[in-house]
UniProtKB/TrEMBL annotation:
Protein name: threonine--tRNA ligase
Family, per entry: Belongs to the class-II aminoacyl-tRNA synthetase family.
Biased composition (Low complexity): 586-601
Lineage: Eukaryota, Fungi, Dikarya, Ascomycota, Pezizomycotina
Domain of life where this protein originates: Eukaryota
Length: 772
């Protein structure tokens, strides 16, 4: 997949800087959307095709000259298929097994990691997997190909300059600049889908061509956005690929489906404005989102899923239940309302209880540090664009986007012994990350947030036990909430820090822990090669909600690099014995920089001298480096709240609920008793309200149910005289119309127990009728 946007530098092309707001389509627009496509087509299309045809012919001639040596192709079941190098294709192998296999196969995977076009000849003996739409990588290839089809339709309709068209988690999009800075209208959707239907029927093959940088610049000379990508991303003297389907030729690494007929169902979902490369200093573009499937039934199921997801949208529920909102004066920073804070506090209280049981120590660290700390940790080089930086007293500071460097400093502020390990620091401190404005989305993508962040410092021989405890923590936490999860081991990326041997050792430790967890009744794990953090491998945890949507929440990261960056060390048992025998105190860890007098400090500021980095130091005699484990269970509390909001559809379990009980008097004569009941509930730390309105009883009960109170306590004459309450449970319809009062003391005790257990059940079940 092309992921150029993350690596490209800022660029300014054209003049207009502000995104143009999409105009709402009027009835007239819908009725008259203009010609289906431009006639004649833009001149650049024919010029592009002529260059492609010439170079593709040359490539095919070169391919024909390749030696067709015998090769062996190993299938997942262990069977071996014979083939010819530069001649046999994955499609031929699939068809040789069955036509139905070929029809449902989207893309091939070679030797476990390289995706391969089905019609591209295999070059050497290899292991071959055939992936269908149900495979995550197969789905992304399918949606990537669909983006190209959308791109072709847009070029034919608008004569636009295409930018990028990647697959995303729920489909794909294409960005483009329309002639004259025009905007895409909703009235364009149907014509574009009509064009896509024609493209699919034409069964256009996807053709792969390798091109030089010079030829690419020539091919895309009409498109300033492609020009920028080529110049910035492709090194001089190197080659990359383009793919053609019909008249479209696009800069792309591929791979793709064999031809456009695979896309049986296609729909445009929305359109919006965006900035080139996500930078507000760049041109305003148009973005069209779509989704596609190899089967019309899958599209119907997807649309039904979207309807249900829309009902559960946490932004809608947050507004309805008055949980949070956002102010324009602080984008990406939630304003937590009282009822929202009840949920926030309930989550953090549970996590803090777990910290107590699992021997964590809670700490607090500053929100702002001199950038020298981030240089020391290596984050400044990798993370600078995502930080909020400030100039203070002629020096540069940054709001912390994570806690790990501060916790490393806390570890090193005094001598450490092996007897102190493992040392577990937990921190709910406020974090800030400079997310692009276009990426902000409710509580799921924010700039200001808190994490249930913790860092464990331990010996290498303690790693397995610590990770096992984290798996137990995770299973208890998610299981209580009715969430399941998947595990992926993300290994060494290209921009890694440190030695390969250190990385290999860290990855082996995590593999051992994952295997043991899977064998003990946990979940199986997958390998996510090359997607680790720059300082260490990690276990990514995807939480699945009731709609089986994956959410990135928890993480476990093993880090051998930060202890080196900060010269962290502890005295080993052997070192302590050595010091005891010699009668000398072991050498302290890296000393902090010597204090500087005020006059020198002021002169340094005038001279523009930066705050010195901590001196990296080799290990002291008798000492060893700790392993640092980065971990979170909920991750961002904001994001986790959004996930739970949609998982429960706003019907919070009692222990999390911001509205737990509403006491409803059947008439104003029983209002005082209702208030007394509410006061007793409050003493039990249960959120209780009283409906003192003049509405009818049925209206009061209905309002309580719509507001998602867990329980309605109805009180009247009998209840007041006998100190009872008539209970209706939100999640059990059999209790909605019953008239069986419960003793008030019994009700209080059962709610107290339900909340303490954090249970999700009805403590007041209907009593079974006795048989006559």
């Amino acid at each position: 997949m092309d992921k150029v946007t993350d690596a490209l530098k800022k660029a300014t092309i054209g003049g207009e800087k502000k995104p143009k707001k999409d105009k709402k389509a009027s009835a007239g627009d819908a009725a008259d959307s203009g010609p289906l496509e431009l006639q004649p087509p833009p001149a650049f299309i024919q010029d592009r095709l002529e260059l492609f045809d010439r170079l593709f012919k040359e490539q095919q001639e070169e391919l024909a000259k390749k030696p067709h040596d015998d090769i062996l192709i190993t299938m997942p079941d262990g069977s071996i298929k014979p083939g010819k190098a530069y001649q046999t294709t994955p499609a031929e192998i699939a068809k040789g097994i069955s036509n139905s296999l070929l029809k449902r196969t989207v893309v091939a995977r070679i030797d476990g990691d390289e995706l391969w076009d089905l019609e591209r000849p295999i070059e050497k003996s290899c292991k071959l997997e055939l992936l269908d739409f149900n495979d995550d990588q197969g789905k992304f290839v399918f949606w990537h190909s669909s983006a190209h089809v959308l791109g072709e339709a847009c070029e034919r309709r608008f004569g636009c300059s295409l930018c990028i068209g990647p697959p995303v988690d729920n489909g794909f999009y294409y960005e483009m600049a329309l002639p004259g800075g025009a905007a895409v209208q909703s009235s364009d959707w149907a014509p574009l889908e009509n064009l896509v239907g024609k493209i699919v029927k034409e069964k256009q093959p996807f053709q792969r061509l390798e091109m030089s940088k010079e030829d690419l610049l020539n091919m895309f000379e009409y498109n300033p956005y492609k020009q920028h990508i080529i110049k910035d991303k492709i090194a001089d003297g190197t080659r990359t690929t383009v793919y053609r389907n019909g008249p479209l030729i696009d800069l792309c690494r591929g791979p793709h489906v064999p031809d456009t007929s695979r896309i049986e169902s296609f729909a445009i979902m929305k359109n919006s404005s965006s900035y080139f490369l996500g930078d507000a200093n760049n041109d305003s573009l148009q973005r069209i989102y779509g989704v596609s499937f190899p089967d019309k039934k899958l599209m119907a199921a997807h649309k039904k899923f979207l309807e249900e997801a829309a009902k559960r949208d946490h932004r809608l529920i947050g507004k309805q239940q008055e949980l949070f909102y956002f102010e324009e004066t602080s984008p990406g920073s939630a304003m937590w309302l009282p009822h929202g804070m009840r949920i926030h506090n309930a989550l953090t209280d549970y996590i803090k209880e777990q910290y107590w049981e699992r021997n964590y120590d809670e700490v607090m660290t500053p929100n702002m540090f001199n950038v020298s700390l981030w240089e020391q940790s290596g984050h400044l080089a990798h993370y600078k664009d995502d930080m909020f930086l400030l100039d203070v007293d002629k020096e540069q500071f940054g709001l912390k986007p994570m806690n790990c460097p501060a916790h490393a400093m806390m570890f090193r502020h005094r001598d450490r012994s092996h007897k102190e390990l493992p040392l577990r620091y937990a921190d709910f401190g406020v974090l800030h990350r400079n997310e692009a404005s276009g990426a902000l989305s409710g509580l799921t993508r924010v700039r200001r947030f808190q994490q249930d962040d913790a860092h464990i410092f331990c010996r290498e021989d303690q790693v397995k036990a610590e990770v096992a405890d984290l798996f137990d923590f995770m299973r208890s936490f998610y299981g209580m909430l009715g969430l399941t999860f998947k595990l992926k081991l993300s290994t060494r990326p290209e921009n890694f820090m440190g030695e390969i041997e250190t990385w290999n050792r860290a990855e082996d430790r995590l593999k051992e822990a994952l295997d043991e967890f899977a064998s003990s009744g946990g979940v199986e794990w997958e390998l996510n090669a090359g997607d680790g953090a720059f300082y260490g491998p990690k276990i990514d945890i995807a939480v699945l909600d009731c709609l089986q949507r994956p959410w990135q929440c928890a993480t476990i990261q093993l880090d051998f690099q930060q202890p080196i960056n900060f010269s962290l060390e502890y005295q080993t048992a052997e070192g302590a014995q050595l010091a005891e025998k010699s009668g000398e105190k072991a050498a302290p860890p890296t000393a902090a920089p010597a204090p500087v007098d005020a006059a020198t400090a002021e002169q340094d500021k005038k001279d523009g001298k930066k705050k010195p980095l901590l001196v990296k130091k080799p290990l002291s005699l008798g000492s060893a480096r700790p392993v640092m484990i980065h971990r979170a269970m909920a991750g961002s509390i904001e994001r986790f709240t959004a996930i739970l909001c949609e998982h429960f559809a706003g019907k919070w379990p009692l222990w999390l609920s911001p509205r737990q009980v509403i006491v409803i008097p059947v008439g104003m004569g029983f209002l005082d008793y209702a208030k007394e009941v509410a006061a007793l509930l409050k003493k039990e730390h249960i959120y209780a309200d009283v409906d003192s309105t003049g509405n009818t009883l049925q209206k009061k009960i209905r309002n309580g149910q719509l507001a998602q109170y867990n329980f309605c306590f109805v009180v009247g004459d009998d209840e007041m005289k006998n100190r009872k309450v008539n209970i209706r449970y939100r999640d059990d319809t059999s209790t909605q119309a019953r008239d069986v009062p419960v003793a008030l003391d019994e009700a209080l005790e059962k709610l107290r127990k339900l909340k303490a257990e954090r249970g999700i059940y009805n403590p007041f079940p209907p009593k079974k009728e006795e048989k006559a």
